[in-house]
Amino acid sequence: MLFEHAVDLDAGYARAHLELGVAYATKADYLARGELRTQAMKSLRRALELQPDSVRAWRELARC
Length: 64
Prior knowledge:
Layout: H1 2-9, H2 14-31, H3 34-50, H4 55-63
């Protein structure tokens, strides 16, 4: 996935962590796989560490 590659290239790229988390959460919804939900939450929490005022990241984390 391209978001995974972006995170590998720049671990401080908050937007990539956010979008990766959203992608994992969406995939978890469709495939009913709990491990993807865990990955989504991990990525979203990292996005919030990097950008704690991100309303979208908080919203997506709550959705998980």
